[in-house]
Design a protein that fits this description.
about 550 residues; mainly alpha; Serine Threonine Protein Phosphatase 5, Tetratricopeptide repeat
Length: about 550
């Protein structure tokens, strides 16, 4: 007699569950890769790998081949996710299963992206000779600075698309952007369906400062792949150059809105620091100093902006400049350090760096090139030459505070006081406007343009006692020289109260007499004369009585009651 098995037994329920799961098949690895969903592909492959390892009695050629296939796909997906260490580990396991010689080259690719260039070279040399091996060794030689081997591998490149892409990349890394652009554009004409080439061309145009062109070329790729991190990053960089950090951050936001974690991408993390004007610089940039050349430069900029001159110098002193940006930044560091320490050697070095950039054929007609020549002449105190260069680029930097600050001072030094005043007044940053150096130059410009009352207002707004005292001295002496005797008298009067130096009394006396002379000539009002008399009467000097008596006598004789 047999016993019937109920439909609700555990065995039956398990079978039903398996049947239900099989009817809900998810995407395959191939489908994920076709959609560039490498995260999904890697997740499936990791699950499959664990399932295969956990399966009982997993052995035999078929099982080994299945595992090999899973590991190869996992390495591929991990590599495209930028998880090069996981890809390397997967390839290591593949070698245990099937020692295919190409695996050496695949491992070398992973090691290259892990910046282990010597190890990558050794691994690549174990693999089979061919185009991939040559390209790998070509790039490793570049990274290791081995020019002899670089030339050897360069000569072995063919006209194949892969080899030409490799050559273009080397041109790009060596700052030969026009040469790289020419190769990419030719390849794009020959392979119009390879729209990723648009990204490379756009990157070159960005480096050549053609930001509008770069954006236009990038658009074709972004329409097809709007979630491409590389493409969005390039677009953000263009927006930053054309507009500002806010516009750049709006582009990056399209990635975060899709759930992308920008902290996972070194390049985007680095660029966000730049877009946010140095925010989180000390947390993000140091780890990239030896990996991204721009990270070192941007960290130097951060130190300069925060008056950490020695830290900036230590970070850049051993850099052998090869790009205009590196020459310029080294020049700025030396100039700043030279001015703060009165070091003639630092100043001389800065002049040389600026002149190298400003006089080079490729930079002499660019905005940075002309700024460099202006900086060189500025350090030499040849302000007429400074004005020529800065005036040639004024229309492009009209609202730039740094530009207006430097141009304003240079104009002052050549006697162009009206233009200097207009230029300095365009400075908007509060940090500048509250700096004593800026206030003192603006004060001088007002006085030299015969507007001493505006200069006096600047003095009244100062809080710092030391700065106030120094500004009073400037107002007193400059107003006296310019014949603005009333404000000279007011300034000397306060100075004398603060410091009973005989020089201040002499200055006040001379300024008061100057106002009186202007009154006699009909150029000063009765109110001004009365103010001068009040200033004099507050003084106990024995000469006061004589001066006051003469002024009052003249007033009485001319019908002026003072």
């Amino acid at each position: 007699m047999t016993t019937a098995v109920s439909d609700n037994t555990p065995i039956s329920c398990q079978a039903q569950e398996i049947a239900r799961v099989k009817t809900k098949k998810g995407p395959t690895v191939e489908e994920c890769v076709a959609k560039r969903d490498f995260t999904g592909a890697a997740a499936i492959l990791e699950f499959n790998l664990k399932s295969e390892d956990a399966a009982a009695g997993a052995s035999g050629p078929a099982r080994a081949e299945e595992k090999r296939k899973t590991l190869m796909w996992l390495a591929y997906a991990s590599f495209h996710l930028g998880n090069y260490q996981r890809a390397l580990d997967a390839y290591e396991q593949v070698r245990d299963v099937d020692d295919t010689p190409e695996i050496f080259l695949f491992r070398a690719c992973c090691l290259f992206y892990l910046q282990l260039y010597k190890e990558a070279t050794k691994e690549a040399e174990k693999g089979p000779a061919g185009p991939l091996q040559n390209r790998l060794l070509f790039h490793c030689a570049h990274k290791l600075g081995d020019e002899d081997k670089l030339l050897v591998y360069h000569q072995q490149l063919t006209d194949s698309k892969e080899d030409q892409l490799s050559l273009a990349a080397i041109h790009y890394f060596r700052n030969h952007f026009q040469e790289a652009t020419d190769i990419y554009k030719r390849l794009l004409l020959e392979n119009r369906d390879d729209i990723a080439l648009n990204v490379y061309v756009a990157m070159c145009y960005y480096k050549l400062d053609y930001y509008d062109v770069s954006l236009e070329i990038m658009q074709a790729y972004l329409q097809a792949f709007p979630d491409s991190v590389v493409a969005v990053n390039v677009k953000a960089c263009n927006q930053f150059k054309l507009y500002n950090g806010a516009a750049a951050k709006d582009e990056v936001k399209t990635l975060t809105d899709r759930g992308y974690n920008i902290e996972q991408n070194d390049l985007v993390s680095h660029n966000m620091v730049v877009f946010e004007d140095g925010q989180n610089a000390l947390r993000v940039l140091p780890q990239f100093v030896d990996a991204l050349p721009e990270a070192r430069l941007n960290l130097v900029v951060y130190y300069l902006k925060h008056d950490k001159l020695q830290e900036a110098y230590e970070l850049i002193k051993d850099v052998e400049p090869s790009t205009p940006q590196e020459y310029i930044l080294k020049g700025v560091v030396h100039a700043t350090l030279g001015q703060s320490t009165a070091s003639r050697q630092h100043i001389k070095t800065a002049q040389q760096y600026f002149q190298l950039v400003g006089s080079s054929p490729t930079e002499c007609d660019t905005i940075p090139g002309r700024q460099c020549m202006a900086s060189c002449f500025y350090l030499l105190k040849q302000f007429e030459d400074v004005n020529i260069y800065l005036n040639s680029i004024k229309q492009y930097l009209y609202n730039e505070d740094d530009f207006n600050w430097n141009f304003g001072i240079s104009l002052c030094n050549t006697g162009s006081h009206q233009e200097a005043l207009e230029t300095l007044l365009r400075v908007q940053q509060e940090e500048y406007r509250h700096d004593y150096c800026y206030v003192s130059w603006l004060t001088r410009c007002y006085i030299l343009n015969h507007n001493p009352s505006a200069a006096w207002d600047l003095y009244l707004k100062l809080d710092n006692s030391d700065d106030s005292f120094n500004l009073l001295q400037l107002i007193a002496h400059d107003c006296y020289k310019m014949g603005e005797f009333l404000y000279a008298a007011k300034a000397f009067d306060i100075l004398e109260r603060l410091d009973p130096d005989p020089e201040y009394w002499e200055g006040k006396r001379g300024a008061c007499v100057g106002v009186f002379q202007r009154a006699v000539a009909g150029k000063a009002t009765r109110v001004e004369l009365e103010e001068v008399l009040s200033i004099l009467k507050a003084n106990n000097n024995p000469q006061v009585e004589y001066i006051v008596r003469i002024m009052k006598k003249w007033g009485a004789e001319n019908g002026i009651n003072v």
